Amino acid sequence: MPASAQPAPGSAGLVLIVDDDPGQRSLLNSFLQGQGFQTLTADSGEAALSILKLHPIQLMISDVRMPGLSGLETLRSARRQNLNVPVLLVTAYADIRDAVTAMRDGAVNYLSKPIDLDELLSSVRKAIGVPTGDGLRLNGGLRLPSWVVGASPLMESAFRDAALIAGSDSRVLITGESGVGKEVLADLIHYWSPRQSKPMVKVNCAAIPANLLESELFGHEKGSFTGASQQRIGRFEAANGGTLFLDEIAELAPALQGKLLRVTQDGCFQRVGSNVDIRSDARLITATNKNLEEEVQKGLFREDLFYRLTVFELNLPALRERPEDILPLAHHFIRQLTQGRARLSPTAAESLLAYAWPGNVRELRNAMERAALLSGGELILPDHLPTKPRQASAATARVVAGASAKLEEVENQAILLALAQHHYNRTEAAKALGISRRNLLYKLHRLRGLGHVVDPPDPSGSASASASPPGS
Description:
With 472 residues, the chain is of the alpha/beta class. The protein contains 18 helices and 16 strands. The model is unreliable at 461-472 (pLDDT under 50).
């Protein structure tokens, strides 16, 4: 039976993934969905052929070595049935003769495991006809720069909102948990804005002591306090004409909140130790991982300043809410850290997908930096990952193993019942089960090895002890 019967959401094309390994299916499924493709999955060649008859598949990606119909046999069978879909074959047992045979029989490409996901994505886009770099359709024809990664619906929504407000000078508050990428979104708004060629100045309000932050933001005059040996301009002056990003805005002291309020009202401020007004034409973008409305209710943040800062509010979701972005982000970081040399193994990818990432994108990047170092810039395995993602993968594997064992038992009982109902006629039993006779023979061989009686009773009265291989 197919592993999924309805297409998973996406917009770039419908791809069928065929592999008897659930981990490999899950990896490819998550990756392609994260790139905007619709997907269906099948755990056998027989199931794949059924899906091809029911859905407008634009590309089939199939493992070569599978129980029942192999990938090559599935390809040939599809051609015989006039199911002329492009086929991309994947195998852990790369053989030049198999590759030549596959291409001769009509495969569009032949990739070896562990799969290079960049190569896979290029092959998929080429086969379906999706241009490389065909990204979101954003306001004003804007495009995502290469340093921004995120293809999940939640991130697409955030990017669309950012594109809509980038061209204005309105103030923006970016909210979200620590590590979700608020600074990157601020960079993106500046990059898309008419101020792109002007400075992008950043201040982390939580990283600078309160007694120094006023001088940092607004500057000071010579002699205005102990240690002020010369005049210094502040970040508002440095960002004039450009963008000023204030991170962790909720940590701003009450006195500074009042001074910031004036800047948001008339664009003016005074350096420490001066009574001369200075005007700044800096666009203000702020960010916080706290709920500012709650901070207002607690009396910790000025209500009037809150409303001045939230002309537009953009919320970035946690990474656990957009798992489609995990693998694209991981590969992006790996390319950055290893100049494209390292590759992520399927088992390591499974570990990444099984973990909740409480530290969000920042934690994922740190994990990839560690993995890149421990792997020597080569193939990244689960052992190269931090302990928590490895433990999450092991826990998930135990749950999946338990579920798989139950499903296997249900399948075994269904096969034995079909055999009994059809008096051990394998052709009729296969029809009743909705599988091919060859696939049934393979499963009977496995059941026979487990000690089940799967052969018709011997007329002489002794049980059959046949141990013939599948296909006999």
